[in-house]
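User: Design a sequence. Structure:
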């Protein structure tokens, strides 16, 4: 039996979709288990660029089925727009997309609440994607939210919508109920009990790939709270998001970028504010695929990476965007954090502590060669191999994949 989880292990944007695309060709099922349209998963395939927000990227494979599990929050308007755009590119959804009836709904109200919460926080804002994700999860937990299955019960839908708007002291526009009922007509064929589907698929020995969104340091419980997203992005979130037991997850692959990035606010110990950071941003095209915001750039943080390797129980790691570092004379990797005379033994859980740390760095020589055509580890310059080896040693997990460009073929698989 084989199931594989591919998880971003820093602050998101680790090029997970590229890794899923590389490994997912044989997947019978590709499953999104948390997050929503805040995600922006980019895949370059056959000269075409695809950006996925809610649809699992496995939809590119004609033989893969795609599941949006119960732990996801769905903006139905944005989902339909995404499906329409993909349909125009020749992608078929019938019999291939499955949406759990328990997935939460993101409504226009949630986007308004997201924007006004951010405006209200002023200098303390989170820097959200403004997709309404936090307010939708908050309503779900407060048991006032709506779920996919509510679309199937018109009377229940109107009365729950009334109650939700009243809860937020807002007036419900009756046109919204009509709009949601039209949306229901289109989405109904895809609504199902995805836990049953996945449990059966597992018993039939199907290959199931769980596609994480965002990254471990954005996990609502174990990330850099409060500067996090509102879901559990770590491996534990797969079980609660899909309704499957932990033993159904056979292998967990953690994806790290060869340097660090972060979008939005919050402490970032290895952040670069100089020309090196600017160069990496341009070279790596580090601009958000959902919001277009320039991403903050920093050195690889092996202390944070070792923390996320542990909380996820990673079996192996993938290092992406290594090609972006070509041409830098010196590279640094953070090996630990200091506060004054004290060397930390654990990753800080409080922002005051995280923003006070002074990173300890290991300095390594860079390389000049263009890596984008390398397909074997021994074809990489020695400095690049040394760089990867240091990462592997500090994160204490074997390196399985290295990505040297956006295309599926620009990948080095490492035999263990
Ligand atoms: P939210 O998920 O829109 O509530 O945003 C909360 C935080 O997570 C912000 O710092 C966002 O920039 C960040 N975030 C959310 N989704 C992504 C993503 O897909 N990649 C990187 N950062 C993300």
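Assistant: Done.
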């Amino acid at each position: 039996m084989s199931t594989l989880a591919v998880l971003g292990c820093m602050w998101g944007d680790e090029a997970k979709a590229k890794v899923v695309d590389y490994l997912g060709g044989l997947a019978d099922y590709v499953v999104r288990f948390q997050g929503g349209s805040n995600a922006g998963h980019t895949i370059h395939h056959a000269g075409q660029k695809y950006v996925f927000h809610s649809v699992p990227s496995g939809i590119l494979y004609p033989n893969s089925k795609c599941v949006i599990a119960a732990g996801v929050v769905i903006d139905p308007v944005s989902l339909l727009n995404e499906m329409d755009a993909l349909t125009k590119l020749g992608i078929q959804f019938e019999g291939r997309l499955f949406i759990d009836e328990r997935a939460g709904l993101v409504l226009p109200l949630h986007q308004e609440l997201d924007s006004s919460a951010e405006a209200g926080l002023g200098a303390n804002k989170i820097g959200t994607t403004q997709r309404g994700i936090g307010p939708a999860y908050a309503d779900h937990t407060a048991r006032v939210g709506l779920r996919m299955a509510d679309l199937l019960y018109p009377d229940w839908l109107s009365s729950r919508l009334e109650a939700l708007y009243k809860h937020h002291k807002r007036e419900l526009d009756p046109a919204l109920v009509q709009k949601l009922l039209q949306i229901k007509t289109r989405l109904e064929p895809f609504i199902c009990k995805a836990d049953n589907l996945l449990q059966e698929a597992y018993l039939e020995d199907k290959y199931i790939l769980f596609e994480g969104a965002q990254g471990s340091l954005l996990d609502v419980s174990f990330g850099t709270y409060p500067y996090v997203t509102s879901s559990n992005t770590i491996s534990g979130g797969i079980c609660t998001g899909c309704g499957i037991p932990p033993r159904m997850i056979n292998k967990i692959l953690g994806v790290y970028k060869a340097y660090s990035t972060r979008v939005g606010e919050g402490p970032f110990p290895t952040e670069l504010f100089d020309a090196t950071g600017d160069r990496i941003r341009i070279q790596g095209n580090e601009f958000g695929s959902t919001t277009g915001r320039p991403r903050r750039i920093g050195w690889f943080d092996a202390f944070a990476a070792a923390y996320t390797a542990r909380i996820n129980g990673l079996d192996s790691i993938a290092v992406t965007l290594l090609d972006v570092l070509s041409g830098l004379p010196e590279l640094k990797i953070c090996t630990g954090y200091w506060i004054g005379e004290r060397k930390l033994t654990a990753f800080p859980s409080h922002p005051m502590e995280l923003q006070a740390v002074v990173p300890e760095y290991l300095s390594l020589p860079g390389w000049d060669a263009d890596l984008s055509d390398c397909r074997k580890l021994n074809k990489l310059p020695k400095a690049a191999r040394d760089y990867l080896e240091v990462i592997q040693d500090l994160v204490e997990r074997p390196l399985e994949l290295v990505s040297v460009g956006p295309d599926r073929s620009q990948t080095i698989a490492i035999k263990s």
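The chain is about 30% helix and 20% strand. The chain has three domains: 3-102+190-252, 105-187, 256-413.
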